[in-house]
Amino acid sequence: MAMSNSVAALYVEPEGHYIGVPGVDPWDEKRDARKYNGPHPVVAHPPCQRWGRFWHGSTRKPHQFKLGDDDGCFASALSSLVEFGGVLEHPCDSHAWAAFGLKKPPRSGGWVEAAAGMWTCCVYQGHYGHMAGKPTWLLASGVSREKLPELRWGKVEQRIHPVALAKHGYEKARRIGMMAMIGGKDKTKLRNATPPEFRDVLIEIARTVGINP
């Protein structure tokens, strides 16, 4: 893999934080990131709905979906990651790790080997500007262990929304979390958004592909 300052951002929002970033080629749903064929390292955010805790759908209508039924998005992102190098992001406890034979990282943090030539870790996006703690798994390929960054490891301190605290009391406010108090049609978009500071970390990881230790 050759060193590159350019990065392809796969499975991103058409008006999200990757749009307009110098040196970043964004692939939104319209472009279909499954068609990406290089040559740049990738920052991949494949859809997670069918891999997460509620992969089966709403608790009111359980098992209306199949585990991993994402139209091949994760498999394609993983293939791009292996071929071109870079980093892939998915929610903590994603079932995709087990499905593709990847070792799961500890929640306490630190990079561990996920498979031959690949590294994984758990990091909380709340350390990088997300409203919620949002524990996240990363998977890096084509990057030497020595070049992987030491991130802000460990859990994020519990955040309590002041309105929820006043309305429901401490215990319920702690249980429902910050995002529960965000209403409107953009709630899912805000939950899924990658904070700019965290985006920059991922881009820099991808830009180290091919750099020797």
Topology overview:
Blueprint lengths: L6 E4 L13 E4 L14 E3 L28 H12 L1 E6 L4 H4 L12 E4 L2 E7 L10 E7 L20 H7 L1 H7 L10 H6 L3 H12 L6
Parallel strand pairs: 1-2, 1-3, 3-4
Antiparallel strand pairs: 4-7, 5-6, 6-7
Helix pairs in contact: 3-4
Commentary on this structure:
- The chain has helices at residues 73-84, 96-99, 162-168, 170-176, 187-192, 196-207, and strands at 7-10, 24-27, 42-44, 86-91, 112-115, 118-124, 135-141.
- With 213 residues, it is α/β, with parallel strands linked by helices.
- The protein has a 7-stranded mixed sheet, sandwiched between helices.
- Helix 3 (162-168) crosses helix 4.
- The longest helix has 12 residues, at 73-84.
- The relative contact order is 0.17.
- Mean pLDDT is 85; it is low at 172-179.
